[in-house]
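My current task is to audit a protein record that another person submitted. Alongside the sequence sits a line of tokens, each denoting a local backbone shape. Where you disagree with what is written, explain briefly why. This is what I was given:
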Amino acid sequence: MAHYLKEAYSVSLRRSLRISDVSPCMWYYKKRDRGDQLLRTRMKGIAAIRVRYGFERILIMLRREGFKDNHKRVYRVYREEGLNLRSKRPRRSRSGAHRLERVDAPAINRVWSMDFLQDALFNGQRFRILAIVDNYSKKCLSLIVGKSLRGEDVRNTLNHVCMAACHLLSLAIAQAESGICRT
């Protein structure tokens, strides 16, 4: 607006600023980029080493190292870098943090998965199911049902399935109680 007044009516810059109610400080202001690169790299370094450190702890570490940046600036950079920690992991994915990488199945009968399922009948009586599945063909190799399945039952089932066709490279076992998946 001030620029238009100056050009259109041939008035001084000072007068056009006063008419348009713009401060001269604002007109002449030049933004100086302080550069967040050093702060960003150090924050990423701290977050990589101290995985469970949140914003407050990272800020304290930065202050100890001599960074004099404002907490608002540090928090802005912290959010932009995606370093936010969830306050509580959802229950459904609690075991996700401890899982190993999945093994790709190159062919049939090379990688199997084994898991226990549990359900209850209409009268409240519980039963368990042992499922063994081929990861490549998604074919169910074995289903064993029982009130209580022991390690001996699992061993016998695996031996029986291996007798049929066994070129097994890996067996993935899902353990829901401990939240660990081993291959």
Notes: The longest helix spans residues 151-164. The chain has two domains: 37-80, 95-182.
